[in-house]
Structure formats: C-alpha cells, structure tokens
Amino acid sequence: EYDGERNSEGERHGRGKARLPNGDTYDGEYEHGLRNGQGTYRFTNGARYIGEYRQNKKHGQGIFFYPDGSKYEGDWVDDQRHGYGVYTFANGDSYTGDWFNHNRHGQGTYVYKDTGSKYVGGWINGNQGGAAELIHLNHRFQGIFLNGNPKGPGKYVFDSGCEQHGEYIYSEQAKEEEEEEEEHSYSLLIAPKWKAMDITKVTLWTPSVEQPPSPTEAPQVAAPAQAATTERAAAAEE
C-alpha cells in the first residue's frame, strides 16, 4: 500500500507512506520509485531506523533502534554501519569510533558501564586489536591486543606513580591440555597470563615556582642588564 506523491511516470516520487507485504512501514522521501532522502522505517520486530536513504538502502546519517534496546547513531554506507558512529548496548556499555562494513574497525573507545573502565585503541573486524590502553579506576594497562586479549609486552601504570613492566603469555601447559581434549584454537578459550619483569620506583614531580617571562615582559627584563653594560663602558672611557 502506498499513499503519497508520484511523478509523471507514475513512480513513487516525493513524500509518501508505504506498507510493505511483510508488515514493515516506511514514511519518508522517494525518488523514482525508491526510498531516497530522509525517512523513517519501522520493522515488525520493533526495530526502527530514522535517517537518510539512497536507492532503498540506509546511506548517510541515521539512527537505528534495535529490538533489544540497543542503538546505533552515525554513518551508514549501503545498509552497513560504516564510517564513524556511536553504539549504545542494552546493558549500558557504549562504543564510539570507527566502523567498517558493519564492524568496529579502526580506532575507538569502549566504555564498560558497570565498572567505568574504558578501552581506548585499535579494533580489527569487531574485536579489540592493535595498540591500546585499558583504563581502570586507579590504574591503566598499555600494550597490544589481539582478538580481545592483551598479548606480548606491556605495562601497568598506577595512579601512585609506579609502573609495572612485563608481558602477557599463554601457558604452554594450558595449551597442551586443551589440545588433548579437543583440537581447536586455544587462544579463544584460555586467558593469557601476566608475567611481571620490572617495577619502576615512584617518582615525585614538583613543578618549578619560577615562570618564564611573557613576550611583553622579555624586553623589560633585558633592559637593566643593558643599562649596566652602558654604565661600565662609560666608566672605562673615563
């Protein structure tokens, strides 16, 4: 069913409302029979999209409300989350950053609502990957992540001022036990273990009381020195 404007060829063109055979509805702009421009699409499962369309596909800026209560607001390309956007999960967690072909990919920040912790760094095909910083209430971890887990060298930085350097490794014993039970990737099931190597001392930093002169004050500071030089030269002549 369609109720709206049409062009001379009889195509849906301009503003209109439509009900699709599956029960979904669309209220928005059309161009040559296709959804194009701003519109609102309501799905029978409770989902809803408000934003831009191009040739029947979500394309441009838009907000998608999912049936589970989660929401995405940001860029779309050919019906995919692509570009920059914010995804708020049903449990209150949120991701803000880059998207590529519907997945978190590039640089982004994930905030865990329950703990207040934040992951700031790289993402690869929806998983935490690359250089990143995991920030907690009173300390943070800086290192490399792979498939959502830290891997290799890194360091913990505590608010007290000290740092603990080390690396994340996978237990060889755990690997062997896992391979005996079932032949599949152990890295997805066994958490890496932290091996501390060095702890730096707390370094207290005290800011200097002296402040450098501003550009306007600099000539005034140099003036007395110049006057003293002139006086010495005059005395030498006498």
UniProtKB/TrEMBL annotation:
Pfam families assigned to the protein according to its UniProt record, in alphabetical order: MORN (PF02493)
Keyword annotations from UniProtKB, A to Z: Cell projection, Cilium, Cytoplasm, Cytoskeleton, Flagellum, Meiosis, Repeat
One GO BP: axoneme assembly
Region (Disordered), start-end ranges: 1-33, 206-238
Low complexity compositional bias, start-end: 217-238
Top-level division of the source organism's lineage: Eukaryota
Coiled-coil annotated residue ranges, if any: none
Record function comment: Functions as part of axonemal radial spoke complexes that play an important part in the motility of sperm and cilia.
Protein name in the entry: Radial spoke head 1 homolog
Species of the source: Casuarius casuarius (Southern cassowary)
Biological classification of the source: Eukaryota, Metazoa, Chordata, Craniata, Vertebrata
